[in-house]
Design goal:
Blueprint: H1 2-12, E1 31-34, H2 44-49, E2 76-82, E3 88-92, E4 101-105, E5 109-114, E6 117-118, E7 124-125, E8 139-144, H3 148-151, E9 153-159, E10 165-172, E11 179-190, E12 202-204, E13 210-213, E14 237-240, E15 265-268, E16 273-278, E17 285-289, E18 295-301, E19 309-310, E20 316-317, E21 320-321, E22 337-340, E23 347-352, E24 365-369, E25 374-381, E26 384-392, E27 397-402, E28 408-412, E29 417-423
Parallel strand pairs: 15-19
Antiparallel strand pairs: 1-26, 2-29, 3-4, 4-5, 5-6, 5-7, 8-9, 9-10, 10-11, 12-13, 13-14, 14-15, 16-17, 17-18, 18-22, 20-21, 23-24, 24-25, 25-26, 27-28, 28-29
Length: about 425
């Protein structure tokens, strides 16, 4: 019964709102291609800056940045690492060479996986501070400071008791497996007009700044036009400096909208970015943006891209017209991959494989669908983006993640388990 109840919740969680019936399922070809997203706006200097930055954690494996062919998925499997979790939504590591993995549960707990076992006591429990009335509310995201080993700071994204988004900083206690529950500094608060499309992902970029993904505020069809409105954080990717001398945070000088009130905005035109990640080797940015009626998409920005990218919502759903036309001269960044609702109903953005155990997967971006359990790989081959379906998994994929060694994990929301990609 417990699995059935969570299964019913999972059908709602993260799914695209739809006012029209989904199309009749049709399998797309195994390999689909899309042209590269526009980069003409980048100056030669910025293009040069997109070269791989120095890795900030462990040295990069001695392997090419990206393979040029898709691997044979029949040679790998998803191995259970932990079960008995409670609505697991996020997977992170602290970059502190401890080998631990931190698992975020929607109900407010962060668990520690150490030496193959989930510790009995949670790292943090804020269940008394959050709202979970809507299936897209709760404790939604976690990011560790790049200097966590020295300062013990980490950041969370949660829905407060009113259902509004809070971004807060905490600090570890004297026990490395216990955060100090009284160390909260809340520094961003975003009113949420509806209970869905909260986004929730956070990640530190190669520039050391904290990026925060927010959905358009919910309901369906972006009724308030938040995706294109620069007077709200909703439907945006924010970028802030958490090491600023101006507490509680600073705004980087090269943020694109520093002349407006919402100067934290780095990119716009997002519907519900459910998981974004930076390639740990190159610094490239990948975003999974949940669609509305028909199209799920993966967006991409190469390292060194300037701010101000507009990913199109709600003018576009994927590459397709949705509502109205943008003003003349507006450049919309097309997705590098998309799939229709015959393939699934809610994209879960993934991660780039940077481990050493599966060299034939090196540089491959894995992403999946929450509803269908399909998992795809994405590569840029000879300048053309190509995506290939790799697996038909019986998972409700809530999140992908990595350990510090670059191995890939996923959380299955229906069985409440954590899996790792391994060779058979």
């Amino acid at each position: 019964m417990k699995k059935l109840i969570f299964g019913l919740i999972a059908v709602i969680l993260l799914t695209a709102c739809s006012s029209r019936p989904a199309p009749t399922p049709q399998l797309a070809p195994d390999i689909a291609t899309l042209p590269p997203s526009p980069t003409e706006a980048l100056s030669p200097e910025l293009k040069a800056e997109s070269a791989a930055p120095e890795p900030t954690a462990e040295p990069a494996p001695e392997a090419p940045p990206s393979v040029s062919t898709f691997p044979d998925a029949a040679e790998v499997q998803w191995e259970v690492v932990a079960n008995g979790l409670d609505q697991p939504l996020d997977i992170q590591h602290a970059g502190d060479n401890s080998g631990r993995i931190f698992i975020v549960e929607r109900g407010g707990k962060i668990l520690v996986l150490e030496n193959g076992f989930v510790l009995e006591e949670p790292f943090l429990n804020i269940g008394n501070k959050i709202a979970t009335r809507n299936s897209e509310q709760g404790l939604l995201g976690l990011a560790f400071h790049p200097d966590y080993a020295e300062n013990g700071y980490f950041f969370i994204n949660y829905s407060d008791r009113n259902g509004d988004t809070v971004i807060a900083r905490y600090q570890v206690s004297g026990n490395p497996n216990q955060a100090n529950p009284d160390s909260e500094t809340a520094f961003i608060h975003v009113d949420q007009p509806f209970g869905n499309h909260n986004g929730g992902g956070m990640a530190f970029g190669p520039d050391g700044f904290l990026y925060i993904g927010l959905g358009d505020g919910g309901s369906a069809n972006d009724p308030r036009g938040n995706g294109q409105n620069l007077n709200t954080y909703l439907g945006k990717l924010l970028r802030i400096s958490v090491d600023s001398t101006e507490p509680p945070y600073g705004v980087p000088a090269d943020n694109p909208f520093n002349d407006i009130q919402r100067s934290e905005i780095w990119a716009l035109g997002l519907r519900n970015p459910w998981r974004f990640s930076f390639d740990s080797l190159t610094g490239d940015l990948y975003i999974g943006d949940v669609g509305q009626n028909q199209w799920e998409e993966i967006d991409f920005l190469p390292a060194g891209s300037p701010g101000g990218a507009n990913f199109g919502w709600n003018y576009r759903e994927g590459q397709h017209p949705f509502s109205g036309e943008p003003p003349a001269g507006t450049e919309l960044i097309a997705p590098v991959a998309e799939y229709d609702h015959g393939q699934g109903c809610s994209v879960t953005g993934g991660v780039i494989y940077r481990g050493t155990e599966l060299p034939e997967w090196q540089g491959l971006y894995l992403y999946g669908d929450f509803c269908s359990g399909r998992i795809w790989g994405l590569l840029q081959i000879d300048g053309i983006w190509q995506t290939q379906k790799l697996m038909e998994a019986d998972f409700s994929i809530a999140s992908f993640g990595q350990d510090q060694a670059g191995n890939i994990y996923l959380t299955d929301y229906s069985t409440e388990s954590l899996y790792r990609l391994v060779r058979k």
